[in-house]
Every structure is written in structure tokens, then in C-alpha cells.
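re: that chain from earlier
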Amino acid sequence: MRNPYIPSMAEIVNIEDETPTIKTFALKLKDGPMDFKPGQFIELTVFGAGEAPFAISSSPFEKEIIQVSVMQTFNPVSLRKGRVTSALFTKKPGDLVGIRGPYGNGYPIEKCIGDVTIVGGGIGASTLRSLILYLMREGKCRKITFFYGARTPADLVFKKDLEEWKKLIDVHVTVDNPQDGWTGHVGVVTTLFDKVPLDFSRDIAFVCGPPIMIKFTVKKLLECGFTSDKIFVSLERFMQCGIGKCGHCNIGKYFVCKDGPIFSYEQIKDIPEIF
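^ sequence. v structure.
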């Protein structure tokens, strides 16, 4: 039996700049293909710096090379950049990293048989990208609508994907603060809901983004007719071991790394510290 704390080796084969603070790393797995579901995550080790959890942002059908989209973290108290992400951002194609996983429960893709509403904010789009790529290829849903918001146009991730997706699914993008040349919608992501005629009562919804964005998105979805068991959120809380041993990600009766990171709002609505 393999020791769950020992990472497998992976080679960085490509690095793509998404925004000034976000990069997507393509990782070729030395131990062979990795089976995973949209919404699952890996623990990525930068040797000499440590490890950190990152959602898998690539298609589950691409098993030989997986992708993670990483934001350069910054601690506003210490005014220091994150140790692991800082070390990762110095790496180049050909360098080796370690991987444990995949971990977590993933999105309930078996429930996607009607209209699917997906709402993302900022780097939260990374885990949703994996879901969208799956649903566009193998999903049984009738319609996919993707609402995506970022602080500025420069902070939008997966810009090439967004243009391609518009040919196949309903995509709506907004920014909080427009810059010169921006002709799209301006406002928080929930303001898009009033512009799109949808029968929300028939939908299932998936949400990922900053905690404050999730809080108000869930509130708006409930007002639009969703029931709490049809809203699923991806919780990004501090996780360390990834396998429910250290207790860092404990919320209520749940461990985010094992019981999540995907939860229905029905499961967590009575846990006050989440948002």
C-alpha cells in the first residue's frame, strides 16, 4: 500500500500566464494517468518550500497531463507572498514537482440532467473550468449557462477558453472595475442574473469564488427560485494534509478535504463560520 504522504513526481511541461498574478501549470505525471472528477484537488509539493492544495483545472478526459491554475498568494498581515506559490512561480518547464491525490468528492455530475447554472469569481473559475469541459463533452444537461466575474478585465482567467465556450454554451462576463477599452458588463457577478431570462426553479447551480462572493451569490440564487439542495459550492479553506488527519479544514461536522470540497448549500447553511 502506497504511503499517502509521499508525493509522486511530475514534470512541468508548460506554464501559461493567465493574469499578472495567476499562472496555469501543465504537469506530466511520472507514474502514469490520473483519474479524477471535476472539483477534485491535488496537493502539490515544491521541494524545499512545502506543499499546498490546488484544484485541478483541466478536463478529466486528459489523464496524462493535468493542469492547475495558481494565484500568487499574499498575506495582508505579514505583507509577504506565499512561500509555496512564490517558489512555484520561479519554476520553468522541465522542473519537477510532487503530487498527492486526487482528493475530495468532486462535483455531483450525475445530477446534471437539466439546465446547469455555473457561477465563478476570479480564480474560482479554475475548478469550474474542469466541470465545464466535462459537461460540454459528456454531460447530459439541456443547457449550460456560465456567469463569470472578476475585479478588472486584466483579472479574467481563461480568456481563450471563454471565447471558445461562447460558441457552445451561454457565457456572461462582468468586471467590478472597467478599464480602458472594456465594453462588457460592469458590476458584481450577481447583477448578471437580472439580464438573463432563465427558469431558475428547474436548474442546478455550482458556485466557486471568494467567500463573500459565494455568500451573496447563494442568496441571489435562493431568491431566484433555487432550493438549497440544488445549489453546490466549492469551499476553499486552508487545507494542509488533504486526507482529514490534521484538522485544519474542519467546519462543523465536516472536513473540507474529505467531505468536500463540494457541498450542497443544504449541508452547510447552518454553519455560521463558513462565509
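The domain at 8-103 is CATH 2.40.30.10 (Elongation Factor Tu (Ef-tu); domain 3).
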